[in-house]
Amino acid sequence: MSAYSFIRPLLFSLDPETAHALTLTLLQIGHKTQLSRLLYDRHTHKPVEVMGLTFKNPVGLAAGLDKNGDHIDALADLGFGFLEIGTVTPRPQPGNPKPRLFRIPEHEAIINRMGFNNLGVGHLLDQARKSRYQGILGINIGKNFATPNTHALDDYLTGLRKVYAAASYVAINISSPNTQNLRQLQQGDEIKRLLEGLKEGQRQLQLEHGRYVPLALKIAPDLSTEEIGHIARLLLEFEMDGVIATNTTMQRPLLDGHPLVQEKGGLSGAPLRDLSTSVIRLLASELNGKCPIIAVGGILSAADAQEKLHAGASLVQLYTGLIYRGPELLRQILAVT
Q: Which of 176, 268, 276, 314 is catalytic?
């Protein structure tokens, strides 16, 4: 029985946001005492090359768990092959009103409508500079709630410029369901303008910094087959470095009749598994190995991770699986990959 199995009942007796903060505090204690490293960071070196980067292993931490980069070193102790922090916006914002995070333990799922709550890109960069972490650090950027879609590119370029020097790669989040109208940026000409502007910004920053930082686009699981095909063609046209599939879903698979089914927000966890995997399969078919896929969504076991890799992903990321299964999930996945 894992150490987490003893702690989980206590955490699940608390409000989800309170439990989240307590978990990160416990990880900080584990880091300072080096207990986390002793427990988890063993036999986690299985290097893989993706996006021109060498990842310690193919299992990473998804964005959202450490929005502000406050716990980089503590999370690194768990043995992840890479960390993705954020989503961060150019200006601090409080996010949506509470309550905004809901557990559904019987389905190993979470509904959240956090709304990009974060302390702003300046704070995140301060924390990244203080960190001793030397591994792959992805920084996930988004637009501020008050910024209209007509000026979204300005926010993404601001974020890209600010995080470029600190990031191993930059994730572009246009797929959160919790910022009004954000997902419209995945449609038609809007996504084309966004990718064109971001790639031009990347080219300019490469010249300024003498260093190429890959860009990965994070997409939703609720896109149609035609929309996924359209996005895949644009990923190739603009030579994007990666795609992250997927964010949370607005659908409610397997939750019929549940008292929380009407709660607004994105659903993650086990019910998202098949939706996410189907998007990965479609992307893999369209991209034909020319743009790597990072899989996230519904990974709660080693078998789930293998399914994503077999569907065409090169890397996987964990979030909700950690809430329900704990850090031991990472080692279970690495044991079979």
A: 176
